[in-house]
Fold:
Amino acid sequence: MRKVTERLLPVTMVGSYPRPLWFKHQLHGQDIQHAFKLEEHAQAYVDATATVIREQEAAGLDIVTDGQMYFDDYGGSIGSFVWYWYERLPGFYPNKMRSPVAQSGQVDAKDASLFNNWGGTTTVGRVGRGPTRLAELYRIAAPYATRPLKVSVGAGPINLSFHVHYDAPGCYYRDQRALVEDLIPIFNAELRELVEAGATFLQLEDLGAWLPIMTGNRGDADWVVDVINRTLEGVNAKIAWHFCLGTAYGSSNQSLWGGQLQEILPLLYRANVEQFVLDFALRDMSDVDVLRTLPPDREVAAGVIDVRTTEIESVEAVAGRMRKVLAVVPAERVYFTTDCGMRVLPRLIAFNKLRTMAQAAELVRGEVLQREGAMT
Structure:
């Protein structure tokens, strides 16, 4: 397993961070090479990115992200997670339709309203590469990080396919898997370009992991793993895979996949990733025992901060969550993180949650080292 830091029990966050309130610019589907011709937008973007990186370091994170300041303020607060791709990859209809997930009959009324707020799309032709510019965005952020910089990449190929209508008039793709097959090389090329730009730690964001729960067919996990492995083929970096329960304005979409982590995680161990990034805090660490099945050559980045509440947890409460993880996984294979992205939170709350996590990790790190010292 590749190390990005020598720190025991490193702390990080998933990816997104609240925008500074003064950063008002929106991309609205533009290529950044076009949008940043406006010097005010370019300067504001760079300043916002530098600010949130500096804030993560001040909070005590060992591994930071660029905060994903390129995500617009779309539905669900984090709707650009999917729309950033739909607007830029040719073949997708870039305008908002009703959500196919909401119309599927698989979700309850609450989740249906949230999915409709995110919206849906369809396809008007074969998908291809477009101006997503992830490598260029990395180059903008990298000079401002004095600590390792992780790049969150998503929504991934399967995840993007969830929000697409396959029966709309004139749609190009009538089958989810056909669309995913054409998305795989697109994401693979983006990931390779990130490595060429200098990125050493990539985190794929793809809730496709939950597909076997959605379909009721555990055999679908074989296809999911195959997609992930082909997406990552030839990508020479440390790879993490994050799949949470989804979030919209701080509400998890549990009616769709229900959080049966104990059922799905062992089916995914054939994926060629070093680290699984999993949320535990929002379920009060209730399913942390599933980590007993984690293979010895895999790590976990365990979510110990609940991003779906504005409560700033106490240091001892977060340390207690961390101890539950360490009871089932050796410390050298554990990172600590937030459950999901923090964009939905007020910035003051997000900062203090991160600071609490870093302080809790320092406390627990000391306990681990003390125990190890007593054994020698």
In short: Residues 32-375 form a domain with the TIM Barrel fold (CATH 3.20.20.210). The beta strands are 151-154, 201-205, 238-242, 247-248, 251-252, 275-279, 299-305, 334-338.
